[in-house]
Design a protein that fits this description.
Layout lengths: L6 E5 L12 H13 L4 E3 L12 H15 L14 H14 L4 E4 L8 H15 L3 E5 L1 H4 L5 H8 L5 E6 L4 H10 L5 E4 L5 H7 L3 E4 L6 H12 L3 H20 L2 H11 L16 H14 L7
Parallel strand pairs: 1-2, 1-7, 3-4, 4-5, 5-6, 6-7
Helix pairs in contact: 1-2, 2-3, 3-4, 8-9, 9-10, 10-11, 10-12, 11-12
């Protein structure tokens, strides 16, 4: 039986080498770093992993490398969604065959499908994958918000979707899903600046990019909240909040790599069309990192 997912799942950054290729050695080292610092699971190939700038073959290879390097120490749930149902099916089946515990599936973006079409998309991908599906709600990109009514309808069509990653940014929606959908599905919150209240309310955890540069702190926020030690969790959350807020406003994947660099973790540079932060923004983020007390170079 598949182990239930929960806790802090890192949306793993994809390191690139100087020639622009995926740096598999750096990726393997980063997987070890994340696991050794307490992460409960890994999600390669997501938004933070710059999947939109990867080829289909690269997406498969990144998933293979992370699953292989994790070696069963923590569950791996690659992001396998696509604008094409056929490609999402192919990626999901490949991930499952490689040993994925689940797949995170973003709904088609660019030309938004209708709600019935989105339901069929998740049902088709779920049937093909053969592992639990985490439905990824990212309305700022997809143009369609998946709310509680949608999931109730979806669950009437398929039992493959076991989890939700809600990146609506709405604490009200997160609470609604946690409180009113908890009998049928588990909610992961994907919006950095609301994770603590979501944990306190009973969220299954979070799938987010900040663990790439603050793994111990992200895990501590979750574990302290689950233990009812809210004041201690709040102290860490407050210390990181301005950094988390920056990520959400300045280009998430790009800012995550810049934050990692500022704390002494080399994840390379973003891949075109994405570029590094402008110098003034990098300085602003470096100042916020310093104020937060993060420094993994000294660890």
């Amino acid at each position: 039986m598949t182990k239930k997912l929960g806790g802090i799942l890192a949306a793993v950054s994809t390191p690139f080498a100087a020639d622009g290729s995926v740096d598999e050695g750096a990726l393997r080292n980063h997987v070890d770093f994340l696991i050794e610092n307490g992460l409960h699971g890994l999600v390669p190939g997501g938004s933070t992993g710059e999947f939109a700038a990867l080829t289909l073959a690269e997406r498969k290879r990144v998933n293979e490398v992370v699953i292989d390097q994790a070696a069963g120490r923590v569950p791996v749930a690659p992001q396998t969604g696509s604008t094409s149902t056929a490609e999402a099916v192919e990626l999901s089946k490949h991930a499952a065959d490689a040993g994925a515990a689940a797949v995170l599936v973003v709904q088609p973006f660019y030309e938004p499908p209708t709600r019935p079409e989105i339901i069929e998309y998740f049902a088709t991908v779920g049937a093909a994958a053969g592992v639990p599906v985490i439905a990824y709600n990212l309305p700022g990109i997809t143009g369609v918000n998946l709310d509680r009514a949608f999931y109730r309808e979806l669950l009437g069509r398929t039992d493959a979707v076991k989890y939700v990653k809600d990146t609506s940014g709405s604490i009200e929606q997160a609470f609604d899903l946690i409180f009113n959908l908890g009998d049928a599905i588990e909610t992961f919150v994907g919006w950095d600046t609301i994770v603590l209240p979501a944990f306190a309310a009973g969220a299954a955890g979070s799938i987010w990019g900040a663990p790439n540069f603050a793994p111990k702190e992200c895990v501590a926020i979750y574990e302290l909240a689950k233990q009812g030690r809210h004041a201690e969790a709040l102290e860490i959350f407050k210390r990181l909040w301005n950094v988390l807020d920056f990520l959400g406003k300045e280009g998430y994947a790009v800012s995550t790599k810049a934050a990692a660099s500022a704390v002494g973790i080399d994840l390379g540079v973003p891949r075109a069309p994405y570029g590094e932060l402008p110098a003034e923004k990098k300085d602003e983020l470096t100042k916020l990192i310093a104020e937060s007390g993060l420094n993994y170079a000294a660890n």
